[in-house]
Amino acid sequence: MLGRILVMAAMIAATSVGMARCASRTAGDDTGQSTVKSVDDGGWSQRGGSGWSSASARKTGSGAVQLGRSGDSHFYADTRVDGASIKMMVDTGASIVALTRRDAEAIGIDVDGLPVVGTARTAGGEVPMRVVMLNSVEIGGIEVRGVQAAVIDADMGVSLLGQSFLSKLDAVNVEGDMMTLR
């Protein structure tokens, strides 16, 4: 009986931590140290990137940017990465910004010239991953400089806006169908 109670308590705690992480993320715990071994693409290589659309980012009077939830229940952002326009899915569970090969090449990154530093787990298996430092990532007037990213050699369908960007913001909040970035 005690064993069942402990297992149930552990499951509740894990669920609560996961939900809290998705609901709100505040800055201040970024140590500046980042070691990347793998990135999960959230199954994009299996789903493909078609059939989704993003609501436009809306800047509020307080300097925050609001993103509306898309029809597939995700949040998408039209970003400027090193001067190039890239549509990204906001992924609070991704530890790093993950770029598709197509988006990395659009920015001007020589993907084949980057060393392979690990692998990324995708629905299609493990694929090579290369790490790069982005000069700038901007959404609706919020700019973060020096953002670590991984280039994933898989058909993810869309690049992911992960914690290497999000953790540098003051807050990431989700209320209903609206995500607010500050």
TrEMBL record:
Keywords, A to Z, come to:
Hydrolase, Protease, Signal
Superkingdom of origin:
Bacteria
Pfam families according to UniProt = gag-asp_proteas
**SUPFAM superfamilies xrefs:** Acid proteases
Q: Which species is this record about?
A: Sphingopyxis witflariensis
Entry keyword Hydrolase: yes
Which InterPro entries does this one have?
Clan_AA_Asp_peptidase_C (IPR011969), Peptidase_aspartic_dom_sf (IPR021109), Retropepsin-like_bacterial (IPR034122)
Q: Which residues form the signal peptide?
A: 1-19
Record GO terms (molecular function): peptidase activity
Which residue intervals make up region (Disordered)?
25-65
Q: Tell me the lineage of the source organism.
A: Bacteria, Pseudomonadati, Pseudomonadota, Alphaproteobacteria, Sphingomonadales
Protein name as it appears in the record: TIGR02281 family clan AA aspartic protease
GO terms in the biological process aspect are:
proteolysis
